[in-house]
Design a protein that fits this description.
Chains A, B, C, D: Keywords: DNA-binding. Chains A, B, C, D: One of its GO terms (molecular function) is DNA-binding transcription factor activity. Chains A, B, C, D: It comes from Photobacterium andalusiense. Chains A, B, C, D: InterPro entries: DNA-bd_HTH_TetR-type_CS (IPR023772), Homeodomain-like_sf (IPR009057), HTH-type_TetR-like_transc_reg (IPR050109), HTH_TetR (IPR001647), TetR-like_HI_0893_C (IPR054422). The structure is a homotetramer of 188-residue chains. The first copy, chain A, is mainly α and 188 residues long. Chain A folds into two domains: 1-44, Homeodomain-like (Arc Repressor Mutant, subunit A, Orthogonal Bundle); 47-185, Tetracycline Repressor, domain 2 (Orthogonal Bundle), CATH 1.10.357.10. The first copy, chain A, has helices spanning 3-19, 26-33, 37-43, 47-66, 76-93, 97-101, 112-122, 124-135, 144-150, 154-163, 171-185. The interface between A and B is large, with 44 and 41 residues. The structure holds a DNA duplex (21 and 21 nucleotides).
DNA sequence: CATGAATGAGTTTTCATTCAT
DNA sequence: GATGAATGAAAACTCATTCAT
């Protein structure tokens, strides 16, 4: 990806996180990215396309982050814990500001079918974990999306609360939260 | 609250749900609310103020909805289940379209302290449930905000997935999801 | 004149002085005058009429002020000096804010002919002074308007400079200024 | 200064002269200047800024006009007369319509200090004349601002009366007025 | 390729005036 | 007479997009 294109995407994400959709102008993006306004239109058809491509860009970033330090030799619980913390770190550190903002889902997207296929591909390590867990009767026999929402994603939601200023959380509470979310999906 | 003010808030909410933030103009609001554009400015300082007050208005609506059909005589599990479904119904039916959308992140906000106080007051029935559950050692000894994020709120997150088009969910799956989220917060 | 009408005129003058034409709204006038907006329209046809009547109101006020402590028995120089200081006091004290603002001449007016007749009537003591001075060859044989502009009115212009912040002036300088302006109209 | 910026300033001045502050809209300015409305906002923050910058622009114009055909070799009286008539011509011809109108009173201003410095620089030829006159005891020993108000500026005030419709003045009367204003500042 | 000034349709906001109470 | 909520036309201002350089 060109340097400029990447700068534009990064700038857009940053501005979206700080100013929200309401209040994102192409001139602001250009200024933040240190390019001319016209330059944006070399890489993106229009504003919608910029937002659309940003969505994919972020998705790729998250997929990459979530699977860091994961290997098949790790136990399911270890893998779960690592992914949960990967998400948490990313959310809390502000590296992917849009996830914790819940603004992410407002980006324009492909249709449901395409998205599912994309997710399956990008988040294969996550799906693999859920599939293995269900195969050995450790996990409840539910759709991966449901399992993910009930467990892994609580990581992002907690991070959002922390960042938005309401929640203070200690390391031991964080640990407890990971285990609690694990309890949601395992069989008892 | 004046008739007109309420009509403006309702109109705004409706338009926000159908068109999103991007396509919300004061003219549209005025037309939908059947008032003159200038009238909006009698009740709200500007567009931001309108959105901010809408936020509070909706919060009140949600608080009211969540506690419907709840009584102290019900068991904790029954209360939990009812609240979970109250949230789910509201989210899925589109009656409180904004709750799912994280659209309010960038509105001017009260500070964390004020917000916490407000939440405590509005969602007292929720807090009471968590407090009782912890008192009798049924629930894990965690902060109510954490417990809520891990359990009740999954209702909204699942609803969002459903609405956004990705997720189809049967009644029995829904039941399983409720129980799974309950598992997250009870002691095992 | 009704109490309310007077309050409206006074409020208008004050607001005009502080905010200028640009930035004078009927609602502001109503608020400042502590009447309802609609009330203004009981006493004035429309905004232009309000401004027009204000002009006459102020003119009357000035005419009254300028002739205070003037009697025919005083010498011309004494009368001149007194009028000059009457104008100066009024301008500097902020009692007739519009004169020093130079905004006065922007108020809508009757046509030149009517105005001349009005001025002749209102400022008869001024005209009398100039006429007497010319009759005894003390003053230069010029039109009263010209004489007034060259002499008496410098009082207002100096006051304006003082109020606008640029000019500091001592009592003896003030005296010198009065005498200098007198020099402009007497024969040498 | 850019071509467009100058065109906007000129258009604004013209419209202000013909329609007054009351009837000056940004659309009109754009149309008169033959630019798009948005273009104005490239060069000026908002309407107030446009007016403020116009003020400075006109001040420069006046300073330039006032010193036309002035040379150090001319006698003080000649210089005075020339400047007086320069001002008169400019005021009467409507080339600097705003000078007479006191319309700038309510614009956001520099503070008194800055303004004084600016004036000293712009109107150096005026100040030089007054300084020389005082040095050789021809003029009264008063502050230049006072001298100017009592003498030179009567040119503008008379012009204003003429333009506003009240005053007709012949060439010989004009001459007499110049000499009369000169009398105000010289020692007798 | 990159620029950024220019565009003008579309937005937010104001405000003179009316009118039911 | 007095009120002030309501109006809506007209104003100020924004911003996605284009295009000459």
């Amino acid at each position: 990806m060109t340097d400029k294109k990447e700068r534009i995407l990064t700038a857009t994400e940053k501005l979206l996180a700080t100013h929200g959709f309401h209040g994102l102008s192409m001139q602001m993006v250009a200024k933040e990215a240190q390019v001319a306004t016209g330059t944006i239109y070399r890489y993106f058809d229009d504003k919608d396309d910029l937002l659309f491509q940003l969505h994919e860009y972020i998705l790729g970033y998250i997929a990459n982050k979530i699977s860091q330090n994961i290997s098949d030799s790790m136990s399911l619980k270890q893998r779960y814990r690592t992914m949960w913390l990967n998400l948490w770190q990313m959310s809390v550190s502000g590296n992917a500001p849009l996830i914790n903002q819940g603004q992410f889902q407002n980006l324009p997207r492909k249709n449901a079918h395409e998205r599912k296929a994309l997710n399956k591909h990008l988040f294969s390590c996550v799906n693999q974990m859920f599939d293995e867990g269900k195969a050995c009767n450790l996990f409840k026999p539910l759709d991966n999306e449901i399992l993910s929402t009930l467990s892994l994603e609580t990581s992002c939601y907690l991070a959002r609360r922390k960042i938005n200023g309401g929640l203070e959380i200690t390391d031991s509470e964080l640990n407890a939260a990971i285990n609690a979310s694990w309890d949601a999906i395992i069989q008892h």
